[in-house]
From TrEMBL:
Organism: Rickenella mellea
Membrane topology: Multi-pass membrane protein
Domain (MARVEL) ranges: 8-142
UniProt-recorded name of the protein: MARVEL domain-containing protein
Any GO CC annotation of this UniProt entry: membrane
Keywords for the protein's UniProt record, in alphabetical order: Membrane, Transmembrane, Transmembrane helix
InterPro entries: Marvel
């Protein structure tokens, strides 16, 4: 389906861009503060995991058809795990930022130190991108699940083992992924009405009594 396939590309592309941004932010924070803070380490791990998950799914889906990584039943749990992790990144960053803000009155320039200001601003950006990526992945996961359930209700049992770009989620099917015959009322199946009923064929082949009788009522005898 073109709309959902486009939405999928936008979701994956935006998530990958945000993951790269978070990767840079976390690397910058850890280079200044060291391995003392939890949220930068979590954000670094989740961003790398997102890159390792979404990039192969996109590349394989564009180069090969029908592989396991493109199935809806595989994509749904994979994206669900990712949005849960991104929610954890946003929540953990918000919790740590709240502790720091309690001592600095919410100002990153409270101590007048350049490194502290950099870490503080990076924390706020990390929190924002964590929640944004969570919302994007969550929204697409819900939409994909709803579309898959609609296709299942319309008889498309193969929707769970199909790729998003190869599936028409709103087409009523016969149960195996093929379009239903009843969907096209003007089209008849092959060999339909190819032969008339047996009784009709018998009466059509029977001779007409009026044609079998002589027209003049006389019987012709052969001459010697």
């Amino acid at each position: 389906m073109a709309i959902l396939s486009t939405l999928r590309m936008l979701t994956f592309g935006t998530s990958l861009v945000f993951s790269l941004i978070v990767l840079g932010l976390c690397a910058n924070i850890l280079s200044i503060s060291g391995p003392l803070l939890v949220s930068p380490q979590l954000g670094l791990a989740v961003s790398i995991l997102t890159l390792l998950t979404l990039v192969p799914m996109l590349v394989i889906d564009m180069t090969r058809k029908g592989l396991l990584t493109s199935w809806v039943i595989v994509e749904l749990p994979a994206l669900s795990i990712l949005w849960v992790l991104w929610l954890s990144v946003g929540a953990e960053t918000d919790a740590e930022d709240a502790v720091v803000s309690a001592f600095t009155d919410g100002s990153c320039d409270f101590f007048g130190d350049a490194q502290f200001t950099t870490v503080c601003n990076s924390y706020k950006a990390l929190e924002a991108f964590g929640f944004l990526t969570w919302l994007i992945l969550l929204a697409y996961t819900i939409v994909l699940l709803v579309f898959a359930c609609i296709a299942q209700s319309r008889g498309n049992r193969a929707v769970w083992t199909s790729a998003v770009r190869d599936t028409d989620f709103f087409t009523k099917t016969a149960g195996n992924g093929e379009p239903s015959v009843n969907q096209y009322p003007g089209v008849q199946t092959p060999h339909e009405n190819a032969y008339p009923p047996a009784g009709q064929q018998m009466y059509q082949n029977a001779p007409n009594p009026a044609q079998a009788m002589p027209q003049s009522g006389r019987v012709a005898y052969p001459q010697a």
